[in-house]
Amino acid sequence: MRVKPYNKAFMVIHGTLLSLVLLTVYGFYSFDYKDVNFVEASIQTLQNVKMMFIEPHFSHFTFQEALYQVAITLGLAFLTTVFGAAIALFLGIFAAQNLTNKAVSAVIKGVVAFIRSVPTVLWVLIFAVAAGLGSVAAVIGMTFHSVGYLIKAYSEAFEEVDKGMIDALKASGAGWWQIIFQAVLPSTATYLVSWTFLRFEINFAVAVAMGAAAGAGGIGFEMFMASGFYYDIQEVGMITYFILIFAILLELVATRVKKNLKTAEV
Q: In terms of domains, do 28 and 128 share one?
């Protein structure tokens, strides 16, 4: 068994972790708990969890209305994913270093790195200044972040294309767009679909949050109303189950599509 040496990196990492642990302990110790009874609070929390997940039910809307609200959330996620994928596919080609000028690639990658560094909810709020809170700001903000995410994913997939294939097509007289459509896109189709479905799943979760944070509607807004307006934790539990079921269905569909694509390639 090899023993790791106590080098500078080892000391810095473990010193940082120890400092964070001590600060956390001190933070909990110095809190003003205002005579909170932790035993009673724990029991009440468990009762609330039981009511939320073991006794869920709808109080302020029906099952059919819940399906409609989920459809709105799915539509918002699908729309932003399609818009983002269309824009990212075009810009991702120019961001790939093996397909375009390195300066152009560096500029695009620098811009999308900045876009990705800002959370989606902040982009939505930024665009809400111009468009107002609602579905319009949510679509623009989510699309903006999706573009930044997918450009990075697509460009890295394009950069993995075999250089020999591209050189062979160039030697045979193929033009730049012919290389894109006859070599790059067909050889990376599985990766493109995989990344697009992954972003769709992310956008579904973001659309739920934007329904509450930006008033974009959908099941997220209903959860916000149930928790912050009606204080109905049983309805919150039912909505949570709805979201979980549809998230699992999306994952199953994505897995099936990727499996079929891989089978078709073979």
A: no
Q: How far is CA 185 from CA 115, 149, 155, 178, in A?
A: 25, 18, 11, 10
> Could you tell me if 183 and 56 are in contact, meaning their C-beta atoms sit under 8 angstroms apart?
no
Q: What is the pLDDT of residue 3?
A: 53
Same domain, yes or no: 75 and 197: yes
Residues 26 and 119 in one domain: no
Q: Are residues 20 and 89 in the same domain?
A: no
Residues 6+ apart with CB under 8 A from 161: 98, 183, 184, 187, 188
Whether 129 has a pLDDT exceeding 90, the answer reads no
CATH number assigned to the domain comprising residue 66: 1.10.3720.10
Tokens at 96, concatenated:
């790939």
For 64-81, what is each residue's pLDDT tens digit?
888 899 999 999 999 999
Domain hosting residue 39, numbered range: 8-52
* Calculated CA dihedral for residues 230, 69, 133, 124, nearest 10 degrees: 110
Give the rounded distance of the alpha carbon of 46 from its chain centre: 30
CB 188, CB 149: distance < 8 Å:
no
Structural domain includes residue 34: yes
Q: How many CA atoms lie less than 13 Å away from 8 in the CB half-sphere?
A: 0
Measured on CA atoms in the order 166, 167, 171, 175, is the torsion positive or negative?
positive
- pLDDT bin (cut points 50, 70, 90) of residue 88 is very high
Domains contained in the chain, number: 2
The answer to whether residue 12 is domain-embedded is: yes
Is residue 239 assigned to a domain?
yes
Token readout for 142 is 């989510």
Q: How far is it, in rounded angstroms, from Cα 224 to Cα 171? A: 60
